[in-house]
Design a protein that fits this description.
Elements: E1 5-9, H1 14-25, E2 29-34, H2 37-51, E3 56-60, H3 66-79, E4 85-88, H4 106-128, E5 132-136, H5 160-182, E6 188-193, H6 207-216, H7 223-226, H8 228-235, E7 246-248, E8 251-252, H9 262-276
Parallel strand pairs: 1-2, 1-4, 2-3, 4-5, 5-6, 6-7
Antiparallel strand pairs: 7-8
Helix pairs in contact: 1-2, 3-4, 4-5, 5-9
């Protein structure tokens, strides 16, 4: 059986780490796109020790730095013939408004724009691999009220959870756009809600955000459980007919009404292409 080539972001902890370990056990060749290569190398050795799968590689990629994303994609294009699975797993919530190296609001940059550029620059490999693209979203998308005139949160007070929810809504928009635009080329795309997972997510929050995370802690699931839907979508046969769907607990699920807004979906694509244009290729 041919080896499946899988690229994953945000694999050094939480559900990303559990996803990577599980897929290594299924004989996937793994390319770990990480900001911290020291932690990435440690994870690589852990995966090899646990699974005996030596096809694990570390690639530096900082999603908050579009030049870094372009360089990572270039490295993959110089090393691989095709990619079969791309898991856009990395993300984060930021207590205070901050900006990426390129001047974009950090929640937007890390959760959406970096992954958007990564996909665009990997398209030749994704097409050759008839790839599945898995975007890790969240039920937090239900609190989103996107303002396309203020994606960078400079015209209104910054609110961490609203910014995060909007980014997770954008993950769903992105998924549906990918399914529509590249489905005819053999690419499928899926959005995932992993569940309320007990990880380091949200550790930098203060105030009401910190309180809400503390109250939710007893109801959280393990990272291993939270990874199950991503693992399923990366490895299950015959699921391409469900491309474009939002998944929970390994099954398609309903989204918010806002997530079905085609005008918003298309506007996000248009704006994202404009923002990443200098880094394409």
């Amino acid at each position: 059986m041919p080896i499946t080539t899988t690229v994953i972001t945000g694999a050094t902890s939480g559900i990303g780490k559990e996803t990577a370990i599980a897929l290594a056990k299924k004989d996937h060749a793994l390319y770990l796109l990480v900001r911290d290569t020291v932690r990435g190398e440690e994870l690589k050795q852990d995966i090899i020790a646990i699974t005996k799968n030596k096809s694990v590689y570390v690639v530096h990629c900082d999603l908050a730095d579009l030049e870094s994303v372009r360089n990572a994609a270039g490295m993959l294009k110089s090393s691989l013939l095709a990619i079969n699975v791309l898991i856009n797993n990395a993300g984060g919530i930021f207590n205070q408004r901050s900006e990426s190296k390129d001047g974009f609001e950090m929640t937007f940059a890390v959760n959406h724009l970096g992954h958007f550029l990564l996909v665009q620059n990997l398209l030749p490999l994704l097409e050759k691999g008839q790839a599945r693209i898995i975007n890790v979203s969240s039920e937090a998308h239900r609190m989103a009220k996107p303002n396309f005139n203020d994606l960078q949160w400079t015209k209104r007070p910054y609110a961490a959870w609203k910014a995060y929810g909007t980014a997770k809504l954008f993950n769903i928009y992105f998924t549906r756009s990918l399914a529509l635009k590249y489905g005819p080329k053999g690419i499928s795309a899926f959005a995932v809600h992993p569940g309320l997972v007990n990880t380091r997510f949200g550790t930098g929050l203060t105030g009401i955000g910190k309180t809400l995370m503390w109250l939710a802690r007893p109801f959280m699931i393990s990272a291993e459980t939270g990874a199950q839907t991503s693992i399923y979508l990366a490895s299950a046969p015959r699921i391409d007919a469900k491309s474009g769907k939002y998944f929970k607990n390994r099954h398609p699920a309903n989204t918010s009404a806002a997530a079905t807004n085609e005008v918003g979906r298309d506007r996000l694509w248009e704006l994202s292409m404009e923002l990443v244009a200098p880094y394409l290729g």
